[in-house]
Design a protein that fits this description.
Cofactor: Zn(2+)
EC number: 3.4.11.2
Radius of gyration: 28 Å
Bound molecules: (3S)-3,7-diaminoheptanoic acid, zinc ion
CATH class of one domain: Mainly Beta
CATH architecture of one domain: Sandwich
InterPro entries: Aminopeptidase_N-like_N, Aminopeptidase_N-like_N_sf, PepN_Ig-like_sf, Peptidase_M1, Peptidase_M1_dom, Peptidase_M1_pepN, Peptidase_M1_pepN_C, Peptidase_M1_pepN_C_sf
Helix content: 40-55%
Strand content: 15-25%
Largest sheet: 8 strands, mixed
GO biological process, one term: proteolysis
Distance between the termini: 26 Å
Keywords: Aminopeptidase, Hydrolase, Metal-binding, Metalloprotease, Protease, Zinc
Number of strands: 33
């Protein structure tokens, strides 16, 4: 909880640590109510610092004893602040022995050392280590750790920490111990321990070099039937990093531990990754295709951090994207390579574009907008954002687009050659990319320093006589809080030209043959013209292929051109994009028509285009599904000056209903054609089929007759996997029929599976017929608790973020509900509360009547006391002018 007034921390104020740490020896006597932590740490004065004051961080811990170089320090020899312990004018060489007490069972923040289902776990990133012991808790202080764990043997039979197990044995009084040593230097945020009643799936695995390593996936008893996919994903990740980047696992042992109470997805602690159960546990009965894909991505992500994050880490938290943007890019490439086909790769890319538009573009246009490398923050935990992660990954991807795969690999190699075991900055990564390729990437720096989504406007001119085709690209970037007058970015714009036959034209730029059907134009000025030569006919331009930069592209496409691209573009991302543009133009018109009370209509051309894609058997089912999913209500809202969530919902529903009616026979045929009989497999082909089949089912249930209801009911009852069962239930819920019996039977079947119960709450929270009263009622359910982040997210976040027409109920009742629960959650877990607080980010865009009520709700939260820095930062930025 906040004790002093919140302070803004600035990147420009960075100073090197006054002391560097060599070794850390930690001793834990684990007890839920009273854990004793003994910390023996050796330090030396840092020649790079002018200060002689030794500053340690500490929070929510009680200091019991403090010795320096063997002598107990008298109270006058150190200063104990609310968040620091300072030893002024300390000697050049120091050994500190610090004993502290903490109470893990009272720690509901899930940061530091805490108890989940009776066992001990830690989460230290970003600043949780200071809740365990006093320490210079900053990522540029890297040290070697030895850890001794002592605990009751019965209750905590498994004792784990980073690195290698040195010894273990029994102690008096039914206790036992384990001693661990991490051979690598690491920052404190990568420290971890687990003391728990767990079981594991384990395997020895042979690296390419021939070295054998031990791999373990630890879970609670009863979940051992759900660890195969995580283990398989881990092995795939190890192999992939060897092959794609020449990076080998540097430890003899690599552990994954699943825990039910966790603030985010997972954590890359050295050799001891701790995961939210959501990203470990899967079998066909309980996990969906999306869950399986999430497990593969997150297991890969945390494993890849071992090099990008752990071996080379961040100098300070402003550099967070150095490890996160890069590691997201790596996990994206891993997932794409695991599918293997070009079309599968495109499907993963389209998913990434959707995430950017759904979450990152709104963030970049809202009150929390910040550069990929922020300049300031109040609470660092608020900056684990889609901008730092997903836009950061786009920035890394642009290096690869500009330098090619080989050039990118050269840059990576140089980065590790230069910076292994160092704590560095985003600029160091950019320098490695530039130097390894002999390229000037100075202007590219603006992707790190300027917030906001750039808008690229294209115009074209075909000269039939000269056979030239000019594309003029101009760029601008809107102002964001604290940043005006943006300078031009270095933007790779991938372009192809389609002929009337739908085929890609051979390309020449200013007379130079390109040698590929896509040219990467490098836009560096505010405006530039690129001339294609030997262009024999008027082309249709396919601009920003593969979404080559995280920008908004404006081009006055005609419907005819979009239909041409939707039918023929060889670039699957732009083919999909053409469909989205066709849909968006109509959705915006329909929304306006709803608002004006005009009659609604949808043209046959659009329906025909949808039909053509739906039945095109040459396309992957997964692509067809994506092509048929309409832009979400959130994405539509982002296109409007003044957002009317109810009109948007009505317009989108009208379009879905019309498509469902017009394409009913084709939808039914696809539903039948894309069944996946036989044992469940999460592979991309099968998942794609299920995706298309279940989309068809959802459409068929928009206006269900008894035949459709029976179809869904049958799928719900007979499904052999969770993907199909959950999809059927969701379609039934959205049909508006009375589905209480199905909901009850689903709950009864899966009451013992926490992750499935989360789905049960989430489906209801996001259903357009669930109003705030229904959510309040669901919160009374015995299985609901605010204390478990997955459960809180399942109901509250899905209602506040994925159910816009109910969240924006005209009477403002859902805003009150939001305020009430941000405040309630804040008392338990500020990080989770601050995420919920962000649901109100875009309040200024709504119609005045809603705006007033949203402001009132924000003000109510801002006035609440006590309030964490986390929530305070979010709401005060939302309210600021
Ligand atoms: N590095 C962690 C995130 C820690 C979040 C702290 N609030 C997970 C990840 O990105 O891999
Ligand atoms: Zn990460």
């Amino acid at each position: 909880m906040r004790t002093d007034s919140p302070q803004t921390i600035f990147r420009k104020d960075y100073t090197p640590p006054s002391y560097l740490v060599h070794t850390v020896e930690l001793g834990f006597d684990l007890d839920p109510a009273r854990t004793i932590v003994a910390n023996r740490v050796t330090l030396s004065r840092n020649p790079a610092s002018k200060s002689k004051d030794l500053v340690l961080h500490g929070e929510e811990i009680d200091l019991v004893a403090l010795r320096m170089n063997g002598k107990t320090l008298a109270p006058g020899q150190y200063v104990l602040g609310s968040h620091t312990l300072t030893i002024p004018k300390a000697p050049a060489e120091v050994t500190l022995e610090i004993e502290t007490l903490c109470a893990p069972e009272l720690n509901t923040t899930l940061s530091g050392l805490y108890v989940s289902n009776g066992s001990f776990y830690t989460q230290c990133e970003a600043e949780g280590f200071r809740r365990i012991t006093y320490f210079p808790d900053r990522p540029d202080v890297m040290a070697k750790y030895t850890v001794m764990l002592r605990a009751d043997k019965q209750r905590y039979p498994v004792l784990l920490s980073n690195g290698n197990l040195l010894e273990q044995g029994d102690l008096d009084g039914g206790r036992h111990y384990a001693k661990w040593e991490d051979p690598f230097k690491k920052p404190s945020y990568l420290f971890a321990l687990v003391a728990a009643r767990l079981v594991c799936q384990e395997e020895t695995y042979t690296l390419k070099s021939g070295r054998e390593v031990l791999l373990q996936v630890w879970v609670e008893e009863g979940n051992l039937d759900k660890t195969d996919y995580a283990m398989q994903s881990l092995k795939n990740s190890i192999r992939w990093d060897e092959e794609r980047f020449g990076l080998e696992l540097d430890l003899d042992r690599f552990m994954i531990v699943a825990v039910g109470d966790f603030n985010m997805g997972a954590m890359e602690n050295k050799g001891l990754n701790i995961f939210n159960t959501k990203f470990v546990l899967a079998n066909p009965r309980v996990a969906t295709d999306i869950d399986y894909a999430g497990i593969e991505a997150v297991v890969g992500h945390e494993y890849f951090h071992n090099w990008t994050g752990n071996r080379v880490t961040c100098r300070d938290w402003f550099q967070l994207s150095l490890k996160e943007g890069l590691t997201v890019f790596r996990d994206q490439e891993f997932s794409a390579d695991m599918i293997g086909t070009a079309s599968g790769r495109a499907v993963t890319r389209i998913d990434q574009v959707r995430t950017l538009r759904q979450a990152q573009f709104p963030e970049d246009a809202g009150p929390m907008a910040h550069p990929v490398r922020p300049d300031s923050f109040v609470e660092i935990n608020n900056f684990y954002t889609v901008t730092v992660y997903e836009k950061g990954a786009e920035v890394v991807r642009m290096y690869q687009t500009l330098l090619g795969r080989e050039g990118f690999r050269k840059g990576m190699d140089l980065y590790f050659q230069r910076h292994d075991e160092q704590a560095v900055q985003c600029d160091d990564f950019r320098a490695a990319m530039a130097d390894a390729n002999g390229r000037d990437l100075a202007q590219f720096e603006r992707w790190y320093s300027q917030a906001g989504t750039p808008v690229v406007t294209a115009s074209t001119r075909y000269d039939a006589a000269a056979q030239t085709y000019d594309i003029t690209l101009s760029q601008r970037c809107p102002d964001t809080p604290g940043q005006t007058g943006k300078l031009p970015f270095h933007i790779p714009v991938a372009v192809g030209l389609l002929g009337a036959d739908g085929k890609d034209m051979a390309l020449a730029l200013d007379g130079e043959v390109v040698g590929a059907t896509t040219a990467v134009l490098e836009l560096k000025e505010a405006e530039q013209t690129f001339r294609f030569t030997s262009v024999r006919e008027q082309p249709v331009p396919s601009i920003l292929r593969d979404f080559s930069a995280p920008v908004v592209l404006e081009y006055p496409y005609t419907d005819a051109e979009l239909l041409h691209l939707f039918r023929y573009d060889s670039d699957a991302v732009n083919r999909w994009e053409a469909g989205q543009r066709l849909a968006m133009a109509r959705l915006l018109k329909l929304t306006a028509a709803v608002a004006q009370g005009a009659t609604l209509a949808l043209d046959d051309t659009f329906i025909a285009a949808q039909r053509a894609v739906l039945v095109d058997e040459t396309l992957d089912a997964a692509f067809r599904e994506l092509a048929l999913v309409l832009p979400s209500e959130t994405i539509i809202a982002e296109q409007m000056e003044v957002v009317d969530p109810h009109a948007i919902h009505a317009a989108r529903q009208f379009m879905r209903r019309t498509i469902a009616r017009e394409l009913a026979p084709e939808l039914l045929a696809q539903y039948q054609a894309n069944q996946t009989p036989g044992p469940y497999s999460p592979d991309a082909q099968s998942a794609g089929k299920r995706g298309l089949k279940n989309l068809a089912l959802a459409y068929l249930l928009i206006d269900p007759g008894s035949a459709e209801l029976k179809l869904a009911q049958r799928q719900f009852e007979q499904a052999t996997n969770m993907t199909d069962r959950a999809a059927a239930l969701s379609a039934l819920i959205h049909s508006g029929e009375d589905v209480r019996a199905s909901l009850q039977s689903f709950y009864d079947d899966f009451a013992g599976e926490a992750l499935v119960v989360d789905k049960w709450f989430a489906m209801q929270g996001a259903a357009p017929n669930t109003d705030v009263a229904a959510v309040r009622k669901l919160m009374q359910h015995p299985a609901f608790t605010l204390k478990n982040p997955n459960r809180a997210r399942s109901l509250l976040f899905s209602f506040c973020n994925a159910n816009p027409s109910q969240f924006h109920a005209k009477d403002g009742s859902a805003y009150d509900f939001w305020a009430e629960h941000v405040i309630a959650l804040d008392a338990l877990n500020p990080q989770v509360a601050a995420r919920l607080a962000r649901s109100m980010d875009r309040w200024r865009r709504y119609a005045p009547a809603l705006q007033d009520q949203m402001r009132a709700a924000l003000e109510r939260v801002a006035r609440a006391a006590p309030l964490s820095n986390d929530v305070m930062e979010v709401v005060s930025k939302a309210l600021a002018n």
